[in-house]
């Protein structure tokens, strides 16, 4: 999508280049190419539509309503926000990276600005020059009293908006400038408010494990097993819709004028076909529960829309006399997909449910693509046709798309059109299948358009220029998908529905956090269709998702941090309760657990990136495996490490642990697992029917485990 560049405002100082009543609001901003420039908002308008400056197809309607600002301050407010949108100069605020905020950021700042304006108006202050230090002190006191016990982040936003208004004072007309003295003598917000920004304690919740497993399993079933049937039925449904003259006129299709009597001939042939095949006529029920022939649907089938339910009604019913009437209007598309070895439906898809199933299929594709790629929801929703390729040399599936977050120019300003990812997602094949399903399902440029059907495209919000589904829409669609699955399971007596206990709102943004948790906590957990998270981990961290652009390594690092701290607490408690440790790395294990417990107890993280940095601490390089614990020292590792030896985030290959490695320690918990392995081997060795080769191999392994067990008992802590 190429941006349209408007004529810039006249050169000169910002005071000289002040806007007039007819100045375009987005004067120095790129706007979408599909925008009618004549309808762009002007400076004197009470309501400014900012949507033309937002390029994400997932974005909601975006604007400013100055009617909400007290009348005496309204003109100055317009000047301030016009400068926010169009001023491009030196960085003006402390900790500010871009020269000017993004369009959506300006809109998000409006509520905080309005809060300050409302307070000023109640104090009888009608001009920015009257905002003295004493006034700001009173505002801060009122803010602390009003916001006591509420969201700390909101207090920071309100204070920051006052600061920004002061920083922009020189861009305003002279009679609209705040005094030269900085607000609150330049004190930091943490000093003013007596508290720091919220920590990561209030994070977005993960989707419960059981829910995510079943949601993914059913999504994969839709993509791999049901998609062909749904796509075929949806196509048949759209063809039948296009027999309606209203749709044909809307899209400029030629009018169909059947020859006189042709409708009756078509009907007679259709009825003969029903009789010969022992079929049934499409049916429907009236409000009283009586079953009738669905003549309108028959008209669709015979391309004679409206011909049979409006004229000669009794004669047509007489022609159909004796034929059974079905309980609904079913499509002719066959059911070929299987569920547990049987057709996934007892009857064909109904005409009136084909669109809903198509929507569910699209939602299932989103779950598969978003969850198994680790992409941000907004980036996945902006994917376009042809986004998947396969490298012949490596066999890797690559998913290419745009990113908008952190897409900035050399000056740190947001590039509204977004940028194509330098490194694509590396995905597994089922993600590529989901993309192919969407490309067959509809003809839109975007994979996830607002509507799948052409005849509904005109129904979208005309103020919203984006053509993709939004996060809110996806949340509703995922919930409807879950409800549909659970209703089908209940009706059919199945026990593999999707649990909703503790689910809450299934927002699309929760998928990334859930994926990071699964990869860290369930690396060998089986995903439906034999996809393993361990395999997915390898695929994701070698491609797009492993780059800092994606943000996913930080998501994963946070989950890894939480997991290691939890395990560290368990290890420390076990040592305190007298757990024995043996093996060449026993001393290193005890030292790391004891020191790390003191160092990290009560540690609070403020960002995902901080978690990634802390993971490099040598004290946290303890990895529990199957019957052993790795106290990692890369220089002594005998296994194949994940990452370079000098990489602070290097990890061992626990599945390839070598018995003679100097990094091995064994706790009492490990020995319990060793004992269980010994008992399993004893059953094989004492089995007289066991093959000699297997008997010898298992006997050798039993002797090795006996040695480990005896060493642990001999060198256990006193």
Note poorly predicted spans. 7-16, 457-461, 523-550
Say what the CATH topology of the largest domain is: hpI Integrase, Chain A
Number of domains: 4
Our count of helices gives: 21
Number of strands: 19
Share of helix, binned: 40-55%
Tell me what the CATH architecture of the largest domain is. Orthogonal Bundle
Q: Tell me about the biggest sheet? A: 4 strands, antiparallel
Q: Give Rg in angstroms.
A: 33 Å
Shape: flat
* Structural class category: alpha+beta
Arrangement of strands in the largest sheet: 16-19-18-17
Instruction: Indicate the mean pLDDT.
Output: 80
* CATH class division of the largest domain: Mainly Alpha
Give the strand content: 5-15%
Structure write-up:
This protein has 718 residues and is of the alpha+beta class. It folds into four domains: 4-193, no CATH class; 236-333, no CATH class; 352-546, hpI Integrase, Chain A (Orthogonal Bundle), CATH 1.10.443; 552-714, no CATH class. It contains 21 helices and 19 strands. The chain has helices spanning 71-86, 103-122, 133-146, 152-167, 189-193, 209-241, 245-250, 262-276, 295-301, 313-319, 354-373, 377-381, 429-441, 471-492, 510-521, 533-541, 552-576, 586-600, 608-614, 668-685, 692-714; strands at residues 4-5, 30-31, 47-49, 63-65, 283-285, 291-293, 338-339, 342-343, 388-390, 397-399, 402-403, 419-420, 425-427, 526-527, 531-532, 581-582, 622-624, 629-631, 664-667. The chain has a four-stranded antiparallel sheet, with helices on both faces. A three-stranded antiparallel sheet has the order 9-10-13. Helix 2 packs across helix 4, helix 15 crosses helix 17 (552-576) and helix 17 crosses helix 18. The longest helix has 33 residues, at 209-241. It is flat. The model is unreliable at 7-16, 457-461 and 523-550 (pLDDT under 50).
């Amino acid at each position: 999508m190429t941006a349209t560049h408007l004529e810039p405002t006249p050169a000169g100082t910002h005071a000289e280049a002040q806007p007039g009543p007819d100045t375009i609001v987005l004067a120095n901003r790129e706007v979408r190419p599909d925008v009618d420039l004549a309808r762009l908002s002007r400076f004197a308008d009470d309501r400014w539509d900012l949507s033309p400056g937002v390029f994400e197809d997932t974005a909601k309607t975006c604007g400013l309503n100055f009617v909400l600002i007290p009348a005496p301050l309204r003109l100055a407010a317009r000047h301030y926000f016009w400068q926010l949108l169009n001023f491009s100069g030196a960085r003006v605020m402390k900790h500010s990276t871009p020269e000017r905020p993004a369009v959506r950021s300006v809109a998000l700042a409006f509520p905080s600005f309005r809060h300050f304006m409302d307070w000023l108006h109640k104090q009888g202050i009608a001009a920015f020059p009257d905002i003295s230090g004493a006034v700001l002190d009173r505002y801060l006191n009122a803010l602390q009293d009003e916001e006591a016990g509420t969201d700390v982040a909101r207090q920071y936003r309100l204070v920051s908006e006052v600061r920004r208004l002061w920083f922009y004072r020189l861009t305003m007309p002279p009679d609209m400038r705040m005094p030269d003295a900085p607000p609150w003598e330049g004190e930091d917000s943490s000093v003013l408010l007596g508290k720091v920004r919220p920590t990561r304690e209030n994070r977005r919740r993960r989707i419960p494990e059981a829910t995510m497993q079943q949601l993914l399993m059913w999504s994969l079933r839709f993509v791999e097993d049901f998609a062909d049937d749904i796509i075929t039925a949806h196509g048949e449904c759209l063809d039948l819709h296009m027999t309606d003259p209203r749709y044909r006129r809307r899209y400029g299709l030629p009018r169909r004028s059947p020859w006189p009597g042709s409708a009756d001939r078509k009907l007679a042939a259709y009825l003969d076909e029903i009789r010969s095949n022992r079929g049934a006529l499409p049916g429907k029920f009236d409000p009283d529960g009586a079953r009738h022939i669905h003549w309108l649907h028959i008209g669709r089938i015979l391309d004679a829309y409206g011909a049979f339910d409006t004229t000669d009604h009794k004669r047509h019913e007489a022609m159909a006399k004796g034929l059974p009437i079905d309980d609904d209007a079913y499509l002719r598309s066959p059911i070929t997909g299987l569920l547990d070895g049987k057709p996934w439906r007892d009857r064909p898809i109904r005409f009136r449910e084909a669109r809903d199933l198509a929507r569910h299929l699209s939602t299932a594709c989103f779950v598969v693509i978003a969850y198994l790629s680790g992409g941000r929801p907004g980036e996945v929703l902006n994917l376009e046709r042809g986004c998947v390729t396969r490298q012949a040399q490596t066999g890797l599936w690559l998913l290419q798309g745009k990113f908008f977050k952190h897409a900035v120019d050399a000056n740190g300003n947001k590039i509204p059109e977004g940028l194509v990812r330098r490194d694509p997602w590396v995905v597994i094949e089922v993600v590529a299948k989901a993309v192919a399903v969407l490309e067959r399902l509809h003809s839109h440029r975007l994979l996830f358009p607002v509507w799948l059907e052409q005849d509904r495209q005109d129904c979208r919000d005309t103020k919203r220029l984006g053509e993709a589904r939004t996060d809110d829409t996806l949340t509703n669609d995922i919930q409807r998908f879950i409800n549909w699955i659970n209703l089908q399971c209940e009706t059919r007596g199945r026990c593999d529905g999707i649990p909703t206990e503790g689910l809450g709102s299934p927002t699309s943004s929760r998928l990334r956090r859930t994926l990071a948790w699964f990869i860290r906590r369930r690396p060998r957990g089986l995903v439906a269709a034999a996809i393993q998270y361990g395999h997915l981990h390898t695929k994701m961290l070698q491609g797009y998702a492993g780059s800092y652009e994606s943000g996913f390594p930080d998501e994963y690092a946070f989950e890894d941090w939480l997991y290691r701290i939890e395990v560290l607490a368990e290890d420390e408690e076990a040592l305190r309760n007298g757990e024995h440790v043996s093996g060449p790395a026993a001393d290193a294990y005890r030292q790391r657990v004891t020191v790390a417990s003191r160092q990290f107890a009560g540690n609070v993280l403020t960002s995902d990136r901080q978690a990634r940095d802390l993971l490099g601490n040598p004290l946290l390089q303890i990895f529990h495996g199957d019957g052993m614990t790795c106290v990692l020292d890369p220089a002594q590792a005998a296994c194949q490490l994940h990452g370079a030896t000098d990489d602070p985030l290097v990890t061992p290959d626990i599945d390839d642990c070598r018995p003679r490695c100097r990094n091995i320690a064994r706790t009492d918990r490990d020995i319990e697992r060793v004992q269980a392995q010994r008992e399993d081997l004893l059953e094989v060795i004492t089995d007289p029917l066991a093959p000699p080769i297997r008997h010898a191999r298992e006997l050798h392994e039993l002797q090795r485990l006996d040695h480990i067990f005896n060493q642990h008992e001999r060198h256990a802590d006193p």
